[in-house]
Amino acid sequence: MPGPDPLEDFRRAFFGPYDHYLGWHGGYDANFSVLDRLTPHHRLLAQAELCQALRAQTADPRAVLGLGHLRSRASLPVLHDNLMSFGIYALGAIASIDPAALATDRVLALLSSNKLSEGQLYRLAIGLGTYFTRGQLDPRVPAQLLELVAHQQYLVRYHALAALRRLYHLPDPAAGNGVTITRADISRDTLFGYISTNGRAADFRRAQDLLQTQIQAATSS
Description:
Blueprint: H1 6-15, H2 20-26, H3 32-36, H4 40-55, H5 61-69, H6 76-81, H7 87-97, H8 104-111, H9 118-131, H10 140-148, H11 154-168, H12 183-187, H13 190-195, H14 201-220
């Protein structure tokens, strides 16, 4: 009798049923232990299956998480191809494999595209601010995030601001004491006040100017 196929546990974990609603709202998870148990040969087969599923658009973010966990350099092209679909997860996987491998021109093209949805744009901003340091990014990327602080959609503005604050270690008055955020905390956040109301382009430009001043102060100290 042949022994069990070592790839079956992997397939069940990464291609089996998944609650997509809970995934998007609570954060996808993946059973990395099944990957860690694979032999080097089967790891290569698993990488190939994950990449193929992403190319065929039959995968969910578990495939991206798996490739990042496997540190699969061969998957970098397909991960970049899925930046629009799985922005946060794809950026996290690329950063896990090699932050220097981030294709800056592709990221800039997406951040400046008028074809991306509000969600696609702000998920890219979140991923850049979460998984990369300023030193790992081409200076043009933070500059484009600064442009998004004046975007017509509030959530894009908000997450671009949050990403820049993380990248430059800027103060966030609305963070409060780290446990609760009060109205007083928010009222002290001048930048948030500028971007929080739709349709006030002059205020968005004031936010950009103030943020640029804070960035210059942070980088010159």
